[in-house]
Each structure stands twice: as structure tokens, then as C-alpha cells.
């Protein structure tokens, strides 16, 4: 059996490649050649070509045929077209920006995405609404269109924010860098009370490999994926800090003023929860985490300590905006001090039901 992974050198690629090797596939990867992964065995064939363009993809593949293609990178709608006649099975990777309300939250009533968001939730309606999300919708339709036309059996996955080995973005390193720089606080939109679905590299790759293992069930289906347990941004910061033996005070700021941590909301999305419903992949493919989320965060921190990214905190120009963060922290503490000076009454909180202290009374001690 021959399998092709398009991409393969990104965060989930090595796990997908190894999973296919373990299942007896003769595996090739197709990528641009800008970097490789030492985790991919030398026995895996490297095909160099750019999967973003029809002509370069076609030239790179030549007359090759595969029993399975897993497309994790490139312009998937072009890949979907090129795979006709080359494979009986295509597994393609997309993401949640096709959901209506992820980035342009105010097109929905109520604002934001449904909680949690199932696979059949409304999608971006037009380029004017959100071009990138609309193009992902077009791609989803192209892949499943080939399935319904009988060109091959197709399965689609919507990846969450992926973290762990080789993870890209603000999930882990942006917090770790502040800890390593000895920072004492971090501003987060709305106090970090927003939850965005994340997935550890091994867990997300396991989701895709379940479709390999259950071809009949997965054929023609679209699945959300991610860790079973999710955290708010504030909890995320706390977990990373606990592993590193440090503490960062969360400074609540309005979302449009969270300048230094704007990447905590992917694609500049609005400050609303983005929680994907995982019921379908659990019920149909039997998904469960390979690594529990809290353990996965620890492993991600340890990996980043062993493979640190660029340290930017002391660079000229203050790229992490520490000066702005310090100013925000000072204003926040002054704001709290002034709020506390406002005359007020603090009410005790009690359970609303009566709780009699002795039998036979028609009212409890609070006259309920």
C-alpha cells in the first residue's frame, strides 16, 4: 500500500507519517523543500513541489498513484482536483474559519459561534463576509464534491489551534518567553476568559489516523477535532506557568486593546468562545485523547524548553510590547484601587432554597 502525505513536515506531519508506517504503508511526503523534519525516517520518499499551484503540483507528482493521500498543506481545492485518478481515498485538512461567526462574530445572533459548534453549523456566506473563511468553505465543497461524484472517497477534518512539537503561533512560546524574561504580568483580552479549541499534535494526528482505520465510516464525512478538555486563555497561561514554576498576573484589557497578545485569538477573531463540538468524531470514530490535555501542555512546554524559539523580549523596538504591558498593568491596578473606594455594600451569597435548622418549622432562619 502506498500513501502520500502532502505537507508532512509541520506539527502533525511526523506523527501522521509514523502512524502510516506503523500501519504498513510505503509512505512518501510532498513538500516545498524549505525544511525537513528529523523525525521523518530517511526511508520516506521526499517529493519536492509546491502544493499551492496546479502546475507545480502536477509536475512534482508526475504519473505517481497512491492508495491513500493525506493533504495537510497547500491549496486543498487544487489538490482535490489533482487527486482524481491518482487515489481512491483522500483525507484533507482544513479548519474552523469556514464557520460563520468565528472571525466576523456579529453576523450571527447571538454574536459569535454556537457553543459548542457542530460540523453542520452555518458557514461563511460570501467573500464579502470573510474572504479567507469563504475560500475554506469553497475548498470543503470541492473535496466533498469529488466524493459525491465518485472520484474517490473523501474525508475532511477541521483542525483546531495546534500546539506541541513544532506548533506555530501564540499557544505556548509567547507565554514561555515572558516567563523566561522574568515578567510578572500579561494582558489578556477580557481577562483571558475566552476559550478557543486547541489540539495537541499527537491527539490531532490520532484523529486523522482514525479515519485511516475506519474508511467506511469516515467516507464522505467532515469532523471537528481537538483535545477533549479545553481551557480559557487565563487557564492556559496558568498551566504553562505552573510547569515553569512561575506566576503571571492576568491583566484584563478590552479585546481591541490586547495589542501584545492579540494572537491568542486566531486570525484576529472577535472575543467570543470558539469551542468545537467533538461529539461526532467520538461517536463515529471512537476518538479519545492519546495524551490528556493537562499532560500535553506540560509536554509542549518541555519541548519548547529543549527547542527554544527566538527570544524577542529585549530586542530593539520592544516587539513583545513590554512597555505597553507595564503601562496597562499600572492603569489596571489604579482602576481597581479607585473602584474599591466607591461606597458599596457587599451582600452575602446564600443558596436560594430554604434550609431549616430544626424540624417542624414553616420558615428557615432566613424566613424562607
3D architecture notes:
The chain has 368 residues and is α/β, with parallel strands linked by helices. Helix 8 packs across helix 10. It is built from eleven helices and eleven strands. The mean pLDDT is 94. The chain is globular and about 80 Å long. Strands 3-2-1-4-5-6-10 form a seven-stranded parallel β-sheet, with helices on both faces.
* Percentage of β-strand residues: 5-15%
Number of helices: 11
Strand order of the largest sheet: 3-2-1-4-5-6-10
Major sheet attributes? 7 strands, parallel
- In the CATH hierarchy, the third-tier topology of the domain at 88-332 is known as Rossmann fold
What is the highest CATH level, the class of the domain at 88-332? Alpha Beta
* Tally of DSSP β-strands: 11
Structural class: alpha/beta
Low-pLDDT ranges: none
> Percent range for helical residues?
25-40%
So, CATH architecture of the domain at 88-332? 3-Layer(aba) Sandwich
- Report the average pLDDT across residues: 94
The CATH homologous superfamily of the domain at 88-332 corresponds to NAD(P)-binding Rossmann-like Domain
**Over all CA atoms, what is the radius of gyration?**
24 Å
- Write down the overall geometry: globular
Distance between the termini: 73 Å
SSE order, one letter for each helix or strand? EHEEHEHEHEEHEEHHEHEHHH
Amino acid at each position: 500500500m502506498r500513501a502520500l502525505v502532502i505537507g508532512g513536515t509541520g506539527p502533525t506531519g511526523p506523527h501522521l507519517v509514523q502512524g502510516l508506517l506503523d500501519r504498513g504503508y510505503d509512505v512518501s511526503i510532498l513538500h516545498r523543500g524549505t525544511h525537513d523534519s528529523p523525525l521523518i525516517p530517511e526511508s520516506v520518499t521526499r517529493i519536492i513541489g509546491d502544493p499551492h499551484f496546479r502546475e507545480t503540483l502536477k509536475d512534482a507528482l508526475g504519473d505517481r498513484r497512491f492508495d491513500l493521500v493525506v493533504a495537510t498543506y497547500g491549496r486543498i481545492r487544487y489538490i482535490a482536483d489533482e487527486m482524481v485518478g491518482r487515489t481512491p481515498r483522500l483525507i484533507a485538512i482544513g479548519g474552523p474559519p469556514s464557520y460563520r461567526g468565528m472571525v466576523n462574530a456579529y453576523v450571527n445572533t447571538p454574536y459569535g459561534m454556537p457553543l459548542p459548534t457542530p460540523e453542520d453549523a452555518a458557514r461563511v456566506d460570501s467573500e464579502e463576509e470573510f474572504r479567507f473563511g469563504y475560500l475554506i468553505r469553497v475548498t470543503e465543497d470541492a473535496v466533498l464534491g469529488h466524493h459525491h461524484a465518485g472520484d474517490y472517497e473523501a474525508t475532511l477534518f477541521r483542525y483546531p489551534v495546534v500546539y506541541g512539537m513544532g506548533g506555530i503561533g501564540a499557544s505556548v512560546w509567547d507565554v514561555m518567553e515572558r516567563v523566561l524574561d522574568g515578567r510578572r504580568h500579561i494582558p489578556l483580552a477580557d481577562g483571558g476568559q475566552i476559550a478557543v479549541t486547541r489540539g495537541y499534535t499527537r491527539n490531532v494526528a490520532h484523529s486523522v489516523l482514525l479515519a485511516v482505520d475506519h474508511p467506511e465510516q469516515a467516507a464522505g464525512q467532515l469532523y471537528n477535532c481537538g483535545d477533549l478538555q479545553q481551557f480559557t486563555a487565563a487557564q492556559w497561561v496558568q498551566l504553562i506557568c505552573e510547569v515553569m514554576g512561575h506566576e503571571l498576573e492576568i491583566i484584563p484589557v478590552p479585546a481591541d486593546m490586547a495589542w501584545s497578545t492579540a494572537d491568542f485569538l486566531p486570525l484576529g477573531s472577535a472575543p467570543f468562545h470558539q469551542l468545537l463540538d467533538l461529539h461526532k468524531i467520538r461517536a463515529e470514530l471512537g476518538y479519545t485523547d492519546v495524551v490528556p490535555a493537562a499532560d500535553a501542555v506540560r509536554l509542549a512546554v518541555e519541548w519548547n524548553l529543549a527547542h527554544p524559539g527566538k527570544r524577542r523580549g529585549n530586542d530593539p523596538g520592544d516587539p513583545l510590547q513590554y512597555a505597553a504591558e507595564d503601562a496597562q498593568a499600572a492603569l489596571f491596578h489604579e482602576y481597581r484601587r479607585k473602584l474599591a473606594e466607591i461606597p458599596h455594600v457587599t451582600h452575602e451569597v446564600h443558596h436560594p432554597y430554604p434550609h431549616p435548622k430544626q424540624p417542624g418549622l414553616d420558615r428557615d432562619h432566613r424566613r424562607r
